[in-house]
Amino acid sequence: MKWQAMVVLIFLCIVPVIASAQSSTNGQGLAKETQVRGYWIDPATGLMWAGKDNGKNVSWHKAMKYCRKLRTAGYSDWRLAKINELEGTYDKNTKSPGESPRSHWHDAMPRTFPVKGNLFLTSDQQWSSNPVIDVHGHPSNASFWYFDYQHGERRRGFEDIAEGDFMDALCVRDSTVATVLLANGDTKAVPTENQNSAQETQSSAYWVAPSTGLMWTTKDNGKDVHLDEAMNYCHNLHMAQYSDWRLATINELEAIRSSNVEPFGFASTQNDRPFAYRLPKELSLTGDPWSSSPVGNTVVWYLSVHSGTRVFDEPSYSHAKRALCVRDSKAQQAPRTGASGTNVNSSSVGSSSGDQGSAQQTQLRGYWIDPSTGLMWAARDSLGNLFVNFAAASYCHDLRLAGYSDWRLATIDELQGIYDQKAQSSGESPRARGHEPEPVLFHVKGGLFLTGKQWSSTRSNDDGERSPTWWVLDFNDGSRLQGKPGPEHTRALCVRRSGE
Fold it and tell me: Is CATH 3.10.100 the right assignment for the domain spanning 206-332?
């Protein structure tokens, strides 16, 4: 009996070892299968994930570019994953094979990551495509969410041309899958035949906006271009048997926003709000589209797709700038009728004819008339550095706008009169020291486009000092500042008396 008991004991000890070895072998086989295929389809979401990340730390913009250029499994529509999609792949009970990449002093070392699908990662930190959104619902152009697989949480990453955080890129694409039942009771995701491969084209290469009748290309050019390249791209485009494509104006770009679609992008869950901008589902943009609308002699408007506001930049800066083409379709040329039966043109759609508070209409006209004072305000400030008050006064004196030449620098009381704490008008923090232009909000009436604090023509000292100072208004909080000539107060907002 003793030898029988011994056999049973040995058997009981061997079984777990065999089971463990078999489980390990199956796990390694699954991981190998993922890498052989080059992708993994999540049965819970239908998303197709690249089998491995890019393999090295890169900046956010390079991560976006890597996924756009990825060609895996015959597909060309890969993209950088969203933060909530990365969160969905985290599983603290999973140990997927990966490695720590080679450094200056160390060889690559095998390690494991808590990620589903046996995806092969080389870093705990993976960029997402989502910018950080502030409490005003305004997305940043410099901070983006990334997912930390070591701690299982999203964190903020910083992106800058000269410096910033460097992380890996894990790519994903939207896949159509069918889930089938296997003989052992498990389920398996199988791609259906109607997925769009890299060799296939979109079912529709253009989209006609119902509100304006304009015909848009459904995709932009897909790479960084400066303004001349963007204009030539559209001019040389031949699509849908048309050759009269052109670069859109800034007003046409602003008009494609829609309130009937889901927000373009996702809000974070940490006291942030959704993006203010909504993009029709028919359009697929990979960057901010240039417009054909000049702001002055040296800068041009483009549209920030994340904030939905116009921003300006020098035509030679191509970073993250795209070409989105448009043409005047027959639907846009033909008269259309509104609810009352009267003819409606594209420029009046989406705004009332008497709504001078509309930011889009203000920028289209180039000015705004304050109904409470009758003052006519320039739609935007000087947009550039005016180091001294005298330069600001000279700028307004030389301004020729809307057929008038009697523009002047506003007084401090006039500036205070258009401050409104409840107003949130789109403006910009211009390019400086290697930083990209970034949309900001100012508390100013009329949809005026501001880029900083504003000089006034009102002196703040009347005691005959040799170094005079003037009042400056800060439209962030409505405070008056005693400004001496210098670079810290650099803008001029011009005004004139309407009706004169």
Answer: yes
